[in-house]
Amino acid sequence: MASLACRVHHDRRFLALALLVLCGSGVSCAQTIVRPSVTVTAPATDALLVLPGFGYTREGERAIRSLAPSLAADGIELFVPTYIARGGLDDSRDRLRQFIRQQPLDRYRQVHVFAFIAGGWTINPLLEAGELPNLATVVYDRSPMQERAARIADEKMHLLTWLRYGSPVFDLARTPYPSLTRETVRVALVVETMPTSFMRRQAATARSYGPMRFECDQFSQRYDDCAFMPFSHDDMYRRFPDVWPQVKAFIRSGRFTDDATRTPPVGDPLTPAGRRDRS
Question: The dihedral of CA 192, 197, 198, 203: what is its sign?
């Protein structure tokens, strides 16, 4: 009897550990549709599809979900799909395609997308193939620093990366950015200008890949507006409510606000203190 109780206790601990690994290994356990906790008098006419990447944590999830009531008041329903698959970018793309069709997102007047780094690599080929015909705007999170993280993880910590995320990190590291060319869609870039702690630790390796260029034209993506955020990749998740006013302005007008920073930073972004001069 004692051995049975011990085995049950062990099984419970194993299950708890498995769930912890699952929820922290690039397979999000978050809900895919974020319903507001307030009563909405009119149905949503637009949808906002937020595509998290590898830096998505519970803190980031809470920050993004906190916007659901204000979005609902503006007639926008928030969707944050679980789409990143351990099998790689192709499997992730299949998941995302299935999600888009199962909702279905084509019932909305317009769809707006905010794509974190992995999200852009995942969804752009779908959009180029005609998915989301009611797509109105896409805002991409880009970073000349953080976009090197996948290559660093592939080359310097391949096994640990595979254990945590599977293959999509490697696919991102080895796949050139697939740009969106649909002329009917308004496109914007928000560019991170601060390094994460990971990139600071890996500064020497990141520098060895060549100069980091912040100019908007360096991202192989046509755009209608571009702004620079004083945030790291981690900040972009946990401070998403601070990013949202610029995204909202772009959705409404095709431009960021007048006070958006449109001058790229200068100097070395990976200094030990994370400081640099700005022009």
Answer: positive
φ, ψ at 134 (rounded to 5°): -95, 15
Read off φ and ψ for residue 51, nearest 5 degrees.
-115, 95
Query: How does pLDDT run across 137-156, given as a tens digit for each residue?
Result: 999 999 999 999 999 999 99
Provide the domain limits for residue 185.
Answer: 30-253
Tell me, yes or no, whether 235 lies in a domain: yes
Kindly report the pTM of this predicted structure.
Answer: 0.85
Q: Report the distance separating Cα 240 and Cα 234, nearest Å.
A: 10
- Is 14 a domain residue? no
DSSP 129: T
Q: Report how far residue 162's alpha carbon sits from residue 54's, in angstroms, rounded to the nearest whole number.
A: 12
Say what the pLDDT of residue 164 is: 94
- pLDDT for 182 beyond 90: yes
Furthest CA-CA distance within the chain: 72
Q: Could you tell me if 113 and 250 are in contact, meaning their C-beta atoms sit under 8 angstroms apart?
A: no
State the helix-helix crossing angle for 240-253 and 58-65, rounded to 10 degrees.
40
**Which tens digits make up the pLDDT trace of 199-239?**
999 999 999 999 999 999 999 999 999 999 999 999 999 99
The helix (run of H) or strand (run of E) holding residue 248 is: helix 240-253
CB atoms within 10 A of CB 191: 23
Q: Are strands 33-34 and 76-79 parallel, antiparallel or unpaired?
A: antiparallel
Query: Residue 81, exposed/middle/buried by CB under 10 A (0-12, 13-18, 19+)?
Result: buried
Does 24 map to a domain?
A: no
Instruction: pLDDT band for 63, please (50, 70, 90 cuts).
Output: very high
